Here is the input.
Amino acid sequence: MDDYDYDNLTSKEQQKLREEQIVQSYRQDEDMMILVFAQWCVNRGFDAKELYQTAYPDQVDNPRLQQGINLTVPKEEAGDIPDDTLFGVLSMYGNEDLALVISEAIDTRAATDRRLASQEGEEE
Here is the structure.
């Protein structure tokens, strides 16, 4: 829609159009957040669906999450996504439950890695 068309709309129509544009922009940003989460999972070897379902058990089938997963690339082709970046993006969209689940998964993996390293050290 060009400026001329916009100017010919009533104020109520203009307001509705602005609201629709805001919602569309928010959805696009939210889709980007989902893609960042899904790619971070690929990069770190986590299952995005499993983490998401742990955080939100009543959202078993989330088509937007599946779309984000479908858009990921192998970790060798992806840029690094620091943990802090992921947590910041999740926080912007109020996904504290997911951030907590991710934090717990990171801690669990680190503990497992330390335990395995310790066992390997004992075997030598």
